[in-house]
Design brief:
- The complex is a heterodimer of chains A (478) and B (293).
- Chain A is mainly α.
- Helices cover 63% and strands 4% of the residues of chain A.
- Chain A is globular.
- About 1% of the residues of chain A have low confidence.
- Chain B has seven helices and eleven strands.
- In chain B, strands 2-3-4-5 form a four-stranded antiparallel beta sheet, with no helix packed on it.
- The chains are: A mainly alpha (478), B alpha+beta (293).
- The interface between A and B is large, with 98 and 85 residues.
């Protein structure tokens, strides 16, 4: 009754009836569970904004220090940096503060995870092909912005662990050619560490990056609405239609349910699973470090590369190349360039310039599967290298044995797994089997031998044989 | 319409949501702690989620439908009409007008980037030059612990490691030094050019790892190695701080030590090499390596 009252008044003023029915309520959208992965990322971002507003009301980003007088007794009376004290106070003395802070951090980790899984879905199903290349590039930019936002976020409390991370940022910036020293000095307002950094990180983390993410995310979703979501191959599905469910009511309600599920998960983790207990390792004191030390997981692939890189610093034309240049500047830079331009790189080889509204099953493109699995293995091994000190400590294995083993693994394993994935995909495609367990040994060896699916051509019979020896309805000679 | 059994479950879920909200408010008012606060709110929203998901899958109408997609690219008449509309006014706007607009805008954008320079205080020196020296330069500054205590030889027993700053400058990051003392038997193993700037087995290096600048916090006294926790670089104290493992490739630069007339440790000059991470520069201060490294 209330909704009808409200709706009539809105309709009088905004004209909802005309646009609402066809554009929103009746709209048909393709339906598959994997199309909801991007939604998880969106809802994580929404939660981050909401919880972030709460946190921003308590955070003190001013430079300088203050005497801590809160309820964490081990620190009481000590002079610590103001941002640090404000976060400890939020965690210990603000009711619901710890839940908000921890759920915010957990949501950030899941945000990045959902983005990556969504990216993989789009990649392996060819959802980036024409006409969706622009949306792919916007998406890759969003990955970068999300990483930036996450990283600046956990640096805000100005604690020992995150300031060690800032150390690395300084070194990475210094490793950028020509402008590196300027970049570092501009970020820190002079020589590292300086007194401006927390305030600047706060501006990046709470204003600049979220605004960019929100804007690009809006564009990303708007493009999906305009171009309409792609659909998996199936009965009745063509490049000129959309087969699926109506947006209203079931699909929308399901989406809202997913949003509630995400929020519930963040709050559950935030209330019951500790994360980033900054009071345990304390404030930054110049010269102090702690171990083991890790950045958040989505930075782990870069950190792992830093640990695995051998100690080379060649001199090129009189310039000494910083050791961090290759693993922290070139490798990530190239990775994102290739990822960003992937639709065009793939098109170079497939020569496929047609527009596609129907997705591919991963097995339809064995080479892409192979490359994707190769990349996953490579970055996965780099990520696992991020915890080598922890692995060494708990397993008792000598640290540098692990480092050496990982160095070889990173170079060799991707080729192996990529090739195996390529073979499996080809075998699945050619044999028509639905799942891996239905594959037979001959399927696999056949995939190894053949370059393309077995031809289904009909071999024409020589005229004499047809007339003299072969019955009319015998069919083609194999 | 006969109510489906799912409706009952969904109703229960939403009731649970309302109940959890009440418990949450009680938990807040009575201060039952973060676990209860998070758990109840999560439970309530989770119940809402289950209710919504069940509602959508069990009660709401589904079915498969087909719609045609808008043709892409748009049909030619539409394209022509768009181009015609967009180019309205083109014939009355000469090229020079448009070109100079581009020039003007380009100039504005280029100019707008320049104030980013203000991110660095205007009084400071060029970054490369600022990084090339630390406040130890000139020598004579006494070493101070982070707590503000000056350091005597007796304060550094064999096998220990101390962090040191120039006196009065506990925030001078690039000047951070680490002081270790090796056994008397090890003193003979030191390179003479290196040993000249040590005092009775007390050796000082820059504490910043030459890989990414993390303070090299761990001293393994059995092997006389300094270990960096960030990416596991290892520096050999007895071989002038040479990097022997891990991604670092430059040695930890030595801080030349002396003792003043009151017995406190002082620095005789700046680090004998670039402290902290390597950066792109050809103005590299030569690091004087001894005959044996």
């Amino acid at each position: 009754m209330i909704t009808r009252w409200l709706f009539r008044r809105l309709d009088d003023r905004v004209g909802l009836s005309t646009a609402g029915r066809s554009r929103l309520l009746n709209r048909v959208v393709p339906d598959h569970w994997s199309f909801m992965l991007g939604e998880i990322a969106v809802y994580s971002f929404v939660y981050l904004c909401l919880s972030g507003v709460f946190l921003s009301l308590f955070f003190d980003d001013s430079p300088g220090s203050t005497v801590y007088t809160g309820s964490f007794t081990a620190m009481r009376g000590e002079e610590v940096s103001s941002p640090y004290a404000s976060v400890v106070r939020l965690s210990w003395d603000v009711r619901f503060g710890l839940v908000m802070r921890q759920s915010h951090h957990w949501a950030a980790l899941i945000f990045l995870g959902a983005i990556v899984v969504h990216l993989l879905r789009v990649f392996f199903t060819g959802g980036f092909r024409k006409p969706r290349e622009l949306n792919w590039m916007i998406g890759v930019t969003l990955v970068l912005l999300a990483m930036l936002n996450g990283f600046t976020g956990y640096d805000l409390p100005d604690d020992l662990l995150s300031d060690m991370g800032l150390n690395i940022v300084n070194a990475v910036l210094l490793a950028v050619p020509f402008i590196g020293t300027w970049l570092s000095f501009m970020l820190f307002g002079g020589e590292f560490l300086g007194h401006d950094i927390i305030r600047r990180l706060m501006a990046i983390h709470s204003i600049i990056a979220p605004a960019l993410i929100a804007g690009l995310l809006l564009l990303h979703v708007a493009l999906v609405v305009r171009q309409r979501h792609a659909q998996f191959p199936g009965p009745g599905r063509t490049d000129t239609n959309v087969v699926g469910v109506r947006l209203w009511p079931a699909r929308l309600v399901r989406s809202l349910g997913l949003m509630a599920l995400c929020f519930s998960l963040f709050l559950f983790l935030g209330g019951l699973v500790q994360i980033d207990p900054i009071w345990l390792w304390g404030d930054t004191v110049a010269g102090r470090t702690m171990g083991p030390s890790q950045p958040d997981w989505y930075m782990g692939w870069i950190d792992g590369a830093l640990r695995l890189m051998p100690g080379w610093e060649p001199t090129l034309f009189g310039w000494r190349m910083p050791n961090m240049f290759l693993p922290a500047v070139v490798m990530p830079g190239l990775s994102f360039l290739v990822l960003f331009f992937w639709p065009f790189i793939e098109r170079l080889f497939t020569k496929d310039r047609a527009a596609h509204q129907v997705l591919e099953r991963p097995r339809d493109r064995p080479v892409r599967v192979g490359i994707g699995v190769m990349a996953l293995t490579f970055y996965g091994l780099l990520l696992s290298a991020w915890a080598l000190d922890v692995i060494g400590y708990y397993s008792g294995t000598p640290q540098f044995f692990l480092v050496d083993a990982w160095r070889y693994a990173v170079l060799v394993a991707p080729l192996v797994t990529g090739f195996i994935a390529f073979l499996l995909a080809k075998a699945l495609r050619d044999s028509g089997a639905e799942a891996f367990i239905e594959l037979t040994w001959s399927d696999l060896t056949g995939a190894l031998r053949r370059a393309s699916p077995p031809p289904e051509e009909v071999v024409p019979l020589p005229k004499e044989d047809v007339v003299a020896h072969v019955p009319v309805d015998a069919g083609p000679i194999p | 319409m006969k109510p489906k059994p799912a409706a009952g479950i969904i109703t229960l879920c939403f009731l649970l949501c309302a109940a959890s909200s009440v418990v949450f408010v009680a938990a807040y008012v009575l201060n039952w702690g973060s676990q209860v606060l998070g758990g109840t709110l999560a439970g309530g929203i989770g119940a809402l989620a289950v209710g919504l998901l069940l509602w959508s899958s069990q009660l709401l109408p589904g079915g498969e439908f087909v719609e045609t997609r808008e043709p892409l690219p748009p049909p030619l008449p539409e394209q022509t009409a768009f181009v015609a509309t967009a180019q309205r006014g083109g014939s009355s706007s000469p090229t020079i007008v448009r070109r100079t607009l581009v020039l003007g805008l380009f100039g504005l954008f280029a100019a707008a980037v320049v104030p980013l320079r203000s991110l660095i205080p205007s009084s400071s020196t060029v970054p490369q030059r600022a990084l090339a020296t630390t406040s130890w330069r000139g020598g004579g500054k006494r070493l101070m612990t982070p707590e503000g205590r000056l350091i005597r030889l007796g304060d550094v027993p064999v096998g220990t490691e101390l962090t040191a700053f120039p006196e009065g400058e506990p925030d001078a990051y690039y000047a951070t030094a680490v002081v270790v003392r090796v056994r008397p038997a090890d003193i003979a193993l030191l390179n003479p050019d290196f040993a000249r700037y040590t005092v009775d087995g007390v050796i000082a290096f820059s504490k910043l790892c030459t890989h990414a600048g993390c303070p090299v916090g761990l001293y393994l006294q059995e092997s006389r190695q300094l270990f960096c926790p960030c990416h596991q670089s290892v520096f050999d104290v007895l071989h002038a701080g040479q990097a022997i493992a891990g991604p670092a490739s430059r040695p930890l630069p030595q801080l030349p030590l002396g003792v003043d007339d009151q017995g406190y440790l002082i620095a005789l000059g700046d680090f004998r090499g670039q402290p902290g991470p390597t950066y792109w520069t050809s103005y590299w201060r030569p690091y004087r390596l001894g005959a044996s490294q």
